[in-house]
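Regression test case RT-17, inverse folding.

Input:
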């Protein structure tokens, strides 16, 4: 009976706070409101997320959102960081990994808040839509534990005219000819297309099609989600975008990069070359000096910490394994800390695609 009562209580508390966070997913969210919601969510998570409560037990109480203890990203591999008991979880996303490697897990009561944060963030930061979608990741029905497949699938249905083609099968293999045929059909129908996939998928598509060129209609755009971590591939962004521009006839300004991870619920974006990653107002990034624990000055390098209000069901503060340069209004991503283990959505996909 106690377990059932706790389940009812945590759901009631979650729904009340979720409603307020959903109302805060807007462009004019003020610093004061963000800070108050972040601290309230932090208290809620310490109350219901026992591993996180233990993590915070030896740390001073947070009086500001920047002081909320950030869980190292790899802890999602060793601890169940969820406010909800297993029987109340309806969706679990898992980090990618090779056979035998422990995978991190992010548990959700449902994806209502995740989906709303993703869609509203996309609208605020890119404002792009298309008539049809070419997915260079598996469909979400084929990869139910992939946060990337889920995110891009929802984006395709809600913002890009529905799915014209998923060019990657359930086995992770890219079918370049299928993508080419779908693009040709969209062009003949005078449809603009959204090309959504990992950086490695775009690289593989270019390699499979060789000298082929795939024309797209005005209004088309591409979204690449980065990722060469542990793959043995390392193509500079300028080279990748040059190849994508040549393949599709897209200028770099119509190519977006998304920075996100399984352990988060919101995303950062940058457009073209040379810009900083920016997030919506309910998502904050801070760049910290790993030795002093203090935030670095603008222009200096440190470890990236993320504070995401939409991460209500787990922990809102996550310390990543990425290095970044602090910029006004955002950050410039440098890549994985050399001391961190290689991981990421693209590594397993690359291994399957190259098989």
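Golden output:
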């Amino acid at each position: 009976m106690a377990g059932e009562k706790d389940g009812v209580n945590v759901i009631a508390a979650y729904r009340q706070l979720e409603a307020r966070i959903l109302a805060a997913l807007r462009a004019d969210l003020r610093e004061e409101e963000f800070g108050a919601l972040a601290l309230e969510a932090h208290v809620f998570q310490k109350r219901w997320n026992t591993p996180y409560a233990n993590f915070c037990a030896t740390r001073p109480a947070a009086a500001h959102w920047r002081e909320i203890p950030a869980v190292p990203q790899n802890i999602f591999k060793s601890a169940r960081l969820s406010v909800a008991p297993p029987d109340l979880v309806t969706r679990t996303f898992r980090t990618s990994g090779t056979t035998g490697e422990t995978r991190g897990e992010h548990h959700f009561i449902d994806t209502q808040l995740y989906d709303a944060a993703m869609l509203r963030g996309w609208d605020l930061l890119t404002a792009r839509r298309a008539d049809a979608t070419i997915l260079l990741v598996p469909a979400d029905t084929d990869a139910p534990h992939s946060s990337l497949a889920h995110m891009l699938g929802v984006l395709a249905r809600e913002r890009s005219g529905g799915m014209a083609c998923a060019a990657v099968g359930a086995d992770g293999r890219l079918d370049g000819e299928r993508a080419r045929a779908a693009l040709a059909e969209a062009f003949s129908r005078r449809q603009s297309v959204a090309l959504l996939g990992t950086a490695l998928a775009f690289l593989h598509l270019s390699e499979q099609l060789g000298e082929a060129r795939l024309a797209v209609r005005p209004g088309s755009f591409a979204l690449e989600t980065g990722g060469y971590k542990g793959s043995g591939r390392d193509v500079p962004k300028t080279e990748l975008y040059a190849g994508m521009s040549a393949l599709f006839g897209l200028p770099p300004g119509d190519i977006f990069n998304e920075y996100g991870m399984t352990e988060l619920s919101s995303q950062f974006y940058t457009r073209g070359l040379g810009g900083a990653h920016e997030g919506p107002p309910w998502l904050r990034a801070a760049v910290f000096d790993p030795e002093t624990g203090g935030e670095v000055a603008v222009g200096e390098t440190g470890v990236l910490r993320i504070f995401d209000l939409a991460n209500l069901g787990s922990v809102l503060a996550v310390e990543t394994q990425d290095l970044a340069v602090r910029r006004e209004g955002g950050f410039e991503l440098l890549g994985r800390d050399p001391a961190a283990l290689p991981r990421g959505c693209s590594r397993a996909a690359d291994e399957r695609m190259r098989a």
